[in-house]
Amino acid sequence: MKTKFNLLLLIMLLLLHEAHAQFDNPDIEDYGTPREINLSHPDTDEGVQLIPVGIDLWEGDDVNTIYYGQIPPNAQDKPVMVFVHGYATNASVWFKGDDNMYWDVYRDGYRSAFVSLTPNRHMWTNGHMLANMLDRIIARYGNSEIVLVGWSKGAVDIDAALVHSGANTKVSQVFTLSAPHYGTGIAELANSVLLSLVNIIFMQNNDATVCLKRGYMNYFRSLTDEHINNTVHYTTMGAWGNGPLNRLIIPQGYLYLAGGSKASGGNDGVVPYSGSRRPGGTELFGGQRKEYLLGFIPYYTGPDETNLDHYEITRGSKAWPHIKANLNNVNQSSPTPTRYNPNANVVSSMQIITGGSGKSAFMIEDNVQKVSILISGKGNGHIVKSENGRTIQAKSPIAERLQGNNLQTVYEFAPDDQGKYWIESDEPFTALISTEGGIEAHLNTGLSDNKLIYQSGETIQLSLTLSATNNAHVKEATVTGTITRTTDLKLKRTDDSTIIVSFREIGGKYIADINENLYAGIYDIVVNAEGNSFAKTVLTSIAVAGEPVRKSATEPSSLSIDNIYPNPAKNSVNIQVQVKSENATLEVYDLFGRKVKQFDLENKLGKVDVQWNALSDIEPGLYILQLSQGNKKITRKFVVE
């Protein structure tokens, strides 16, 4: 009887493993046998390594390489420390420059290995590569215990190697440093069509960026956290030491704008502290925590050990003492809940505007102490002015040069008063405007700690609240939005139509129900809220899994958009639609979901031709044409240049 029970249990475990393993696995590139190189003794006087800025760095002989550190005396009874780099870097981040990790590990008598994965591929390729590398490292050191240390995206690559490439039996413990276990808002900013002019560090259009969207990382967590191979203990160390526009001026500024400020828990310039925690693991330090002065004035505090930026946390003196002190100490305090979802609620003090040549307005609300503006575009010929004529000076007289000959200029100022401000430009641009104080937008995606993803056919409910400095809810606003599938679950790019999201106000909250028959994939969400004296933009993403309900092939369609030409359009746009019932509407929306044009289709049936001088009504950009009748809606994207 016991034998039958054990057999049944084994079958159930195998079925459970299969249930977790059956997912849309992206294409995995196999780089073959890794190259192995022996390092010389660590040098503490090599000079400071420059922060790696650029795209597709070290995409050559260094990929798929293991660097072995020198073996210090009496190291045989200690574990082998294997270090995994992050996005757009390679193994040298650990063993070059002042205060390098290699020196600290060697000095304290530990053997070490440093791996170079790809700088720009998703975690599935890098995880497969790392699993193969661990076989070579184990063959070199025999039965020694292996401990992994992963920085930034390298920690996600470790997750993929251990859980999904079966390397969990090869490793005893994992430490992660500033790891995007739940992705980062920078990845959404990098791939948003709203920011098509922006491309900077951590802003590259590659699989490594796309897989770090919050929606995809929620999907990854749903595949990983309850997997049968999720057996290795993780200890996480996050960082929160950057306020807006400090040392990591460009990426940190974007992340701050997207809701990772010290007032909401902090970030290190790339990863919000809340996203650096891994479910079921141990949080090494408490990070930022809300406390109250005099019992009612909120403020955030945290330990000095994590008051670091994203690159400082890789330095030996900053991280190694805490790793060494916690080796084999798997019963630490401050465990992260096994069910945890910091992406369920997204906070933004950001406003995004796009403009062409000429003047573009933006609003600054009451109680704002400071305004930060990042303007990106092909040129540098822009001026920021207040309504009373004050010209705002740029923080630096020299603009930051970005990829593709784009330039970015940073402005910081204390506003004269609430009201209208202007950006005057002689080239198209994108501006991200952040305020300290004033109004924050809080978007709940309908997810929770127990719900990381949606299933096809399930109603998606978005809920937005607007809160002022005094915590009062703002109840007078116009809230619009869009949702677009940007990749499938294999991370393949899609060119799906954008869906317009309609919000309604209920008791101080703005609610939207999305009942579309969605296909599986990652969906980017843009929500825009505007009042008399403010505007806020929220960007995030969600994952949808499963198969949509198939519509009957014989069901006749009463609506169709037959053609939009020319597309892109220089000025005039010709639109051809089919209308087979009365009361149809034809409308144009921008990427924020704001209606910018409506055409009269009253009493028009059959084939309808519309000619429109678009530039007389709208600025150049990407727009959505929507033809609707009752609950039926179809959309098409088009561009006006």
Automatic annotation (TrEMBL):
It comes from the Bacteria. Keywords: Signal. Residues 564-640 form the Secretion system C-terminal sorting domain. Residues 1-21 form the signal peptide. SUPFAM superfamilies: alpha/beta-Hydrolases. InterPro entries: AB_hydrolase_fold (IPR029058), Secre_tail (IPR026444). It holds the Pfam family Por_Secre_tail. This is T9SS type A sorting domain-containing protein. It comes from Fulvivirga kasyanovii.
